[in-house]
Fold these 4 entries.
Entry 1:
Amino acid sequence: MQAAEDAAIGRQARGVGEIRPQRPQHRARRPQRSQPLRPAAAFGQRGIAGLVRPPQIAMAAEAGRLGRALALRHRETAQHSDRLTSDCTAVGRALGVAGDELRDLTFAAALHDLGKIGVPEQVLGNSGPLDDEGWRLIHGHPELGAQIIDPVGALAGAAVLIRACHEHWDGTGYPRGLTGDEIPLGSRVILACDAYHAMCEERSYQPAMPPAEARGRVRDLAGVDFDPRVVEALLLHLDRTDRSVTQA
């Protein structure tokens, strides 16, 4: 299974999952209101199809195929989603998420980057600042990912989380500029976990950050990008597992 940007301390988790050099005046513009699936590891041998009714199996299978296509296109996305899913599930459980809501969170974490299937390679692999069109495409990928899986009834809850998984606690995220508790809890969990993993991983546009430094950055952004309660649960989980992202 496959899931800050300021001049001060490098608020590079701003584009969580897309940690890039600051876009000029980007923060001043408030938004308007893989091997991604590893069935044997998390959902049993039946995978997504095992959770949906017969009329939806074809659509579920198609979502899985698109996720695998994204994984083949970007190996880093596949590895990232796999580790992210495990941590999101653990953090969600620690925050009291259970039952169908936990299932939705696990699926959303695994498929949160599915919408990048519609982002050109030259944007995803860009090592420098993005232009306006590049940011438009990046900011649109959560909605695209949600639209891909939304028709599958069993994945509708996950689609809601994917649609909001780049919204920031202070309202400066995208695509709708939601704030605080307006953001679904599962989306807040994905945002913080996604930022931590993205910081720790080497990307075309950034070197890997030591896990201890990444934890400090996440802590600094509690109450800004991230729900403070989610940050507390994530850091506690990381301390308990006592591993770096590269060992996941």
Note: Confidence is low (pLDDT under 50) at residues 1-52, 244-248.
Entry 2:
Amino acid sequence: MTHHVALLRAVNVGKRKVPMADLRALCSQHGLEDAKTYVASGNVVFAAKVPPAEAEDRLEAALEGRFGFKVDVVVRTARQIAAALEHNPFVTASAIEPHRVMLLFAKRPLAKDAAERIMERAQGGEKVAEGRLVDALWPRIDGDSAHRSFTSALHRLRKLLGEDRALVLHEGKLTLDRRYVWVDAWAFEAFAQRAESVAEPAVLESLADRMLSLYRGPFMADDVDEPWYQPPRERMRGRLARAMGRVLRHWQDSGQRDRALGCYQACRDADPGFKELVTDR
């Protein structure tokens, strides 16, 4: 028999109560043997001869029949769980703050544009679907309750900003109106785009200086373990490194060594990760 782990979504929150003793009994009744649970987490370990997909179907049907509501279940073998842990990209963070490192298992294969959608959620700002915001901010709430939470949060945020027009909700998509809202990441990206195409050294120096003044360290640095922040974080770091690398080379070639060293140190002060990025260019 193969050992499996079953993860139950959104149980023991609100009225969706699933006592762990009942969950263990259901497992035993449906051929999932030696079931063990941990507190009221909704996670259960068991041994079975069936593959994970069949175990999922059995548990979902049993839970709905017993409790009267649908519960999404994800089942993985113990070997699959161990393999996921072995490929943890956040080993250091896991050792320092293990409670902030999360591992998610998708029930179905991810869409081809999943990475782009995650980046959109991380960057935010324009034409973000209400559903995506609800999934990110209130993952355990469904239907009308989730919509009410979104509407209430939107109302409070507009009041906090002091301008209702700063946040535009149109056809179910939320946008920050650039006429009323200034975002440092937007300004940084605009300067970076110009810097990548400009040829005049003086203009490049000015743009690079503005980028460095806006760059206050890695993007969302306080949320170091959130994987969806990594792509924009690395993109912004890389764009600044490319611009500053061109400026540094220009100063070195024109004999302005002290100026180049000062700029390099400013980059290092802003982000220690620049050590490799800048010197490699």
Note: The CA atoms of residues 85 and 103 lie 9 Å apart.
Entry 3:
Amino acid sequence: MDPRRYRFARRVVTTAVSVFLLAPPAAVAQSYQILHTFTINTGDGAQPFAALIQGSDGKFYGTTGNGGTNNVGTVFKMDAAGNVTILHSFVTTDGYGVWVLANGNTWTPLHSLHPTTIVTADLDSNGRDEIVFDFPGYGLWVYSDSGTWRMLNSLSASHMAAGHLDANAKADLVIDFGAGIGIWVYRNNAIWSYLNGFPSKNLLLADLDGTGKDEVVVDFGPAYGLWQYANDSAWSQLNAISPAGMAAGRFY
């Protein structure tokens, strides 16, 4: 078996990720075989996007970015039949934690825990960004430019983005708390407001119409497609198709 044929594929209809085997290149369309599907609910990990390494024992070794006992990732081995053995479930004290590279040359430790998501935003409009962390099991925390920590919410986020939804100089946060809670906005460093009850597959903020206010662009997945919340006022569909990924910028 050629280990170079092993790759990971995202399954569009779920959050699961599968390991698959490609058939050898040929003039006809290639086929693939699912060897193992990683899901966050089965304890074997989730989001195994790194490449597999084949050991001297013939097994394939890899890591996941999430899932496992503590929901912060796993180390696993897998045989050619797709049978997975978890070798280690990461804990938040593993590794080096969060560090800051200041002024391009000085590394400073900030926290020993491992966040799943980090965004920066000038929440208090003083010209310096705060850092917003999602620490699994501990919720959302803000590290201010004054060097202090404060809890923003006890819940963890599925997705999070920062921008300006209104004319206020203070940055806003758009946070998807997942199924059952939905998408919320943390406005002007003070107020929580409800945005949508459906969980997102992905989201970002961008000023699509040049008004100075960011639109919230949300991929609601294959069932609903791509939508925008424009000018802090109304929802409209951008595309019926759910993209594999998305980014915003100025290209023209």
Note: Residues 98-239 form one domain.
Entry 4:
Amino acid sequence: MGICIAILSGTAAKAQNEYVTNDVVENEKVISRIIYRNDGGLENHMKYDFTYDEQNRILSKEIFKWDRRKQCWSPDTKLSFRYTDTHIVMEQARWSPTQNAYSMDLKRAVYEMNEEHMPIAQLIHRKCDREHRRAILEEPSVSWI
């Protein structure tokens, strides 16, 4: 077992050395995170932009990838979050370069919360046809923490 742990630790350390992050913080919240690839020099790789609500909960996480040819950040994916007393709804949309906008949400995850606001079940939906109907991919499952 000790050998396995050493191998996993070595892999994690290698991955951390391959990338360097830089956070932009405002009002004690990370509003942007840039990830650089460390290949002997720092090269733009990915960027995350975050928005928050008045309760400091994440409303959105926008993911950008570096376009080497254009030398700019290109939108890739957007995660949007909605909160109720008993659920968190996360919707994922992909960037459509032809429409120059995010598509209708491709995937939706609904997290059921217990009284301590800890997630206890998850239901995942995916758009399955052009009328934007949803198909269930996974049955809700209980996670014990």
Note: The CA atoms of residues 29 and 56 lie 8 Å apart.
